[in-house]
Amino acid sequence: MKNICVIGVGYVGLVTAACFADLGNRVVALDISEERIEKLKQGIMPIYEPGLGEMVERNVNAGRLSFTTSYKEGLKDAEFVFICVGTPEGVDGEADLRYVRMAAEEIARTMDHPMILINKSTVPVGTGDWVAEIVRQNQPKPIEFSVVSCPEFLREGSAISDFLNPDRTILGSEDPDAASRVAELHLPLRAPIMVTDLRTAEMIKYASNAFLATRISFINEIANICEALGADVKEVAQGMGYDKRIGHHFLEAGVGYGGSCFPKDVKALAYMAQVQGRHPQLLQAVMDINAYQRRHVVLKLRDILGSLEGKIVGLMGLAFKPNTDDMREAPSITIAELLLDEGAIVRGYDPVAMENAARVMPQVEMVETPYKLAEGADAIIVVTDWNEFKQLDMERIRDSMRQPVLIDGRNIYDPKRMRELGFRYRGVGRGYNGGED
Ligand code: UGA
């Protein structure tokens, strides 16, 4: 059993705290938000993540997990301190490191024994060195510490199983002893552990996210070509994926990537390159294609309906992906704005994200079911591929719509079946016989 303090109870922090506690360690999770900590003490999760509430409760009851807003309390016995604070996007795509700085300053001022600081947040290359410098400058008296970079690769919606079953653990450090102690902490996860220098570890995180985003933009570009040439991108991706060098993951064409990571990280990596006088052309193309995918569904709708003025359009799914209530950089936001700009009346439905969505898209009317979304609508656009949309009663949907127009922005339906049912159906990249529709 080790003593751990986790700073920040957002996605990464709370999952890290809960999972390390579950592995038998004693964990104090710290956040500067009184409200968040108070809620957590009452068992209310600040985020929607399947299985998280249960895991937190179990470990709180077992006395392995506690919450605080006090650095003194959090750092009291800590051997390992995980920095998991937010790194939002700043101006020009540069990461905003103010919360990392605040955490580093507070740690420096409070620490009274040696500890290892581990950065889990996605931070610009060089941040580990910068954190060490801030801590050194703010310590009232010198106390030994090391900084280790241990980027997190979990996904929202499957965060717990991603954390507990990682493909690899990356540890970046200039201090071999610190790296081996952090490695030991990760041994129960039984994943390959790679030790590198600080900057390389930080870069591995950006390069991984940028590569996955590139796969998505690549397949979206192929999808657009498929539409023009009458091929079906779903089958193209499947056929490509059998090649072991390619694989099947992250080749789903659609309205593009969103969320708190890919958009921000690709932009930040491009920014870092530009600052160094490099020309990140591929990253730029990845971002351009992603932006176009959102516009493209609206263009398709215009193609079918003509003017969108006064047309009722239902957005099926609002979260940036299924199994989350996260609306950050959700494609639905841009799509709703484009439709509203064209004079359409926009409705929205999402199984869990409607409360958050209502805050960011106040002009969109939220309805309680997918069937309500369809009532009198001129079109439905599938924006998020929630499982519950895959088995809807499509005859009922068709019958209650004013016009059975279905734009499937996530390719969850079978085009042939939808057309047989009488929908004017458009997927993404699902051309056939030299055209679509
Ligand atoms: C992503 C990475 O997958 C994690 O490994 C990483 O730890 C995390 O960012 C992070 O940096 O914190 P996440 O943003 O939770 O995780 O979501 P993903 O499941 O990767 O999906 C990202 C977006 O890509 C979603 O909008 C999804 O709909 C879209 N996507 C994904 C596609 O459009 N096509 C695909 O084939 C896959």
Q: Could you give the topology of this structure?
A:
Layout: E1 3-7, H1 11-22, E2 26-30, H2 34-41, H3 52-61, E3 65-68, H4 71-75, E4 80-83, H5 98-110, E5 115-119, H6 127-138, E6 145-149, H7 159-164, E7 169-172, H8 176-186, E8 193-196, H9 198-229, H10 233-241, H11 262-275, H12 281-305, E9 312-316, H13 331-341, E10 345-349, H14 354-360, E11 365-366, H15 370-374, E12 379-382, H16 394-400, E13 405-408, H17 415-420, E14 424-426
Parallel strand pairs: 1-2, 1-4, 2-3, 4-5, 5-6, 7-8, 9-10, 9-12, 10-11, 12-13, 13-14
Helix pairs in contact: 1-3, 5-6, 9-11, 9-12, 11-12, 12-13
The structure holds uridine-5'-diphosphate-glucuronic acid (UGA).
Written overview of the protein:
This protein folds into two domains: 3-196, 3-Layer(aba) Sandwich (Rossmann fold), CATH 3.40.50; 210-426, Rossmann fold. The chain is 44% helix and 14% strand. The protein is built from 17 helices and 14 strands. A six-stranded parallel beta sheet has the order 3-2-1-4-5-6, sandwiched between helices. Strands 11-10-9-12-13-14 form a six-stranded parallel beta sheet. The protein has a two-stranded parallel sheet with strand order 7-8. Strand 12, helix 16 and strand 13 (405-408) form a beta-alpha-beta unit. The model has no long low-confidence stretch (mean pLDDT 96). The structure holds uridine-5'-diphosphate-glucuronic acid. Residues 122, 152-156, 209, 212, 216, 250-252, 254, 256-259, 261-262, 320-321 line the site of uridine-5'-diphosphate-glucuronic acid.
